Amino acid sequence: MKVKFWGVRGSIGSPVKGHSIREKVRRILQYASPADILDDDAIERFVKALPFSLLQTYGGNTTCLEIRSAKNDLVIVDAGTGIRELGMKMLAEGFLQGKGECDMVFTHTHWDHIQGLPFFAPFYIPGNKFHIHAISEDIEDRLKYQHSSRHFPVGFDEMQATREFIQHPETTEWNIKGLKVRTKGMRHPGNSYSYRFEEDGKSIIFGSDAEFKLEDMDRIDEYMEYFHNADVLIFDTQYTFEEQLQKIDWGHSSASIATDIALRAGVKKLVLFHHDPSYDDEKLDEVYLRALRYREMMDKQSKLEIVMAYEGLELAV
Q1: Domain ranges of the chain
Q2: Which of 1.10.357.10, 3.60.15.10, 1.10.260.40, 3.30.565.10 is the CATH number of 2-14+57-316?
Q3: What's the CA gap between 114 and 225, in Å, rounded?
Q4: Tens digit of pLDDT for each residue in 169-209?
Q5: Beta strands 192-199 and 179-186: pairing type?
Q6: What's this model's pTM, rounded to 2 decimal places?
Q7: Residue 58: CB partners within 8 Å, gap ≥ 6?
Q8: From start to end of 69-109, where are the E strands?
Q9: I want to staple 83 with a disulfide (CB 3.0 to 4.6 A). Which of 79, 126, 215, 261 is the partner?
């Protein structure tokens, strides 16, 4: 399986501001020495050595992931603003001609997980086929509501692709073109559902919009079997540990809680996800470094790999 991240923010989109770019340039110049700009090779070495927060951006689009099976079948997880760019890419894969087909999975229907759908070009092209899966009840009506004329000028039924809506009970296992899918309800206002995708003995878990408090860690056994030995766990780390203590019942977790869960469950790779819209790239660097230090403090021998999600990140399992 492969997974690509098209939107990694939570709550609301957060585009990079002009003053942030200016500050990045200023700090890069502070780092540079005359030897760093002698020629193209020197410049390239200098640029590669820069921290991520100066060289790139983690991105400002809200939640959307692309998962590919071993046979290259496409599964889209959620439809935040990141789905617009994914849709443009899909047009080159038969969807422009109305010959595309894929499955979509929704964790829940809070705005940051569906707000890109009206701008998803493949939905407008007749002939394309979408199989839309959800645990949340009335998924079709929830998506249609966003397209009310009070909210958007194009009605949901005016988008001409063929859409099939499939409601799954939380406790069942099902298949998407060879991928085995399991689900688990997460603590989140209005309910949210995690998905575990398995193929050929490998597993990817998408567990965003999930609140685990410090006191929950003593009674987390009911989740351990679900998380156990996941190759990749993509987990909600919207807040720092200190902020999570101030935002009880807001529905999100921290990197330290995510690391604890990953260590206990024997997860191989933890992806920190659903970044707070108020966090700039430098703050997200700090969140990542703190997570690495916390892992070392909790288990110096651990082989757990921790990765910070950013737009364009691709992982193969």
Answers
A1: 2-14+57-316, 20-55
A2: 3.60.15.10
A3: 29
A4: 998 999 999 999 999 999 899 999 999 999 999 999 999 99
A5: antiparallel
A6: 0.94
A7: 8, 52, 275, 281, 284, 308, 309, 310, 311
A8: 74-77, 101-106
A9: 79
